[in-house]
Here is the input.
Amino acid sequence: MRLDKIKWDVIDRLTQEYGSGAKTIFYGSPRICDLVHTVVATDDVIVQEKWNIPDKIVVSTALTGSFFRKCDNPNQPITVDEIYTAGKEVCEAGGQIVHIHVRNDEGFNVIDIDRFQATIGRLKKEYPDRMFECCIVPRYPGDWEKMLQMLDLGLTETVTVNTVATYIGDMLQTKGPQVMIKKAVAIQEHGCKPRIAVYSDGDIDNANRYLIKTGIIEGPAHWGILPAMPGCSPMNNPVQMVEGLLHLQQRIKDIDPDAVIQVCAAGRASSYLATLAALMGFNVRIGMEDTTYRYPHKDDVIENNAQLFREFRDVCKFLGREIATPNEYRKMIGLPLK
Here is the structure.
């Protein structure tokens, strides 16, 4: 500490003249600070309005997805039994919405009716008050017909429509306009709700051109934001994460002002992105589909989907938001109540 830059004679003079205490005037006496009103205005002048944040938050737990394998996370559910057990654990932990993919014997994402029946079908019987979703992406010959069969069986109430054309990691993922349009039509014809999945702002423009402006999907639409994976909207540090999410939500609101938005805890951003989304008022998807990491600044991998749900449920509680029931979710996105 240096003392030679201060004019101590001035300090002494000011102390003699004004004293050593702070100057405090209680203009609103006996009130000191009121977060709602001010003494100088009538009571209808509100100083700080309550934020427009929904009390309810939809928390979907995505058990496995199509990206990650055992070599990425040894805890990743791959087999039918592992996926079923993961779903059961989430339901037992209080999870209301469970999002399911199934894998083949080589560990790749597939449309397999028998495997979906052994996971979603079995869970629906055991937990009839929960809501189950699945992502049905036709990739191989015969998949389109399998997707329609899945819709006929009523195993899912929402289905993702990706409007993406990008490299995700080392995989090129692209859907032609005809696929987006035909899939969105088929989903709605079967009484399900399409979720528009976007990975970057270009995908939002694709959705607008092919699905919104054409009237294939009428607003308010159900949107899923899947950033932060390699090749998607970059969120490689906290500033990118905050700016990126604000940018994406505003681009969606530009074309769909009343959009229902779900943010996925993806990539390294993981739990931080989910927490940011929750405090901004969005719905959230957590789980082992979109990331292997628990935290963006550590290499700890997710051990268990149910454990992750319980931890995030506590985050929501701290933020004053309550986990929505399936019927509350259905009402948000325009599905019939059950």
